[in-house]
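Handout, page 2. Input:
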Amino acid sequence: MKRPLALAATVFSAAALVLSGCGSDSLSTDGSSGPAASDAEIPAVEASQELHDSLPDAIQEAGVIQVGAEATYKPNEYLDGTEIKGMNPELFDAVAARLGVENNWNMAAFDSILAGVQAGKYDVGSSSFTITNERMETLTFVEYLNVGSQWATLTGNPGDFDPAAPCGKTVAYQTGTTQEVEIKELQETTCASDPMAELAYTGQDEVNNALMIGKADAMTADYPIVQNAIQAAEGEMEALGEQYGAAPYGFTMAKDNLQLAEAIAQALDDLKASGVYDAILDKYGVADAAVEQFPINPELA
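Output:
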């Protein structure tokens, strides 16, 4: 039996939604409050009875979306104590508010989330997932952002790292990311005769630390994450070149769960029209990564 939306006209504040389900022994936090965000007010989000009724029956009845996330990726998602914060949680909480449900945030290692979505452990994966053709073979995605990668090194580039000639150097990255794929491709092509030494970590905080203590010559991550790490390093880290290879981020769900994907895509359309989507991106300094439409399983160049 479908559970009706008790308060179809309820107005939610996207900036003040309560999060639940935070907590896992698989992740740790340094206790910092994360990147500074602007003080711009986020418009209120009104629940839609029509969108609520379009959700899968199980989610309507539970009133909750189970979300898998890895929270060491500032400013996109990070832990402040036991609370998950950042651009992605705030945006997807606004989506849930529009759908008339709540999110239960489940902390997990990044490279375990997609398998968890496929297995039905999570309804949605929301953790800065880049959409790729390979991932779309087994999962469904709703595009919501367009972001590139960037290299970083210690200030002054003491390891003399050149992104165009990385062979023989030591590089750090987070496992399960598109940067790992890029490194593996470079190893097989450009660096086959002089491979890079790879430092692969499950958390981005470990990647940042490896660079800061001099274990790595350079690190690579998504552009917003590199920029945040540089800010946090207070002059001890710098970017190498501009961001490159811009690609779409997507909220992900099981391959056959188009019903949920369509509801999320429509909620994003509504948030865009109401100004909530752009206000959240502005708050976290990623407005340049905004998209105008939110396609399901977009065609990639």
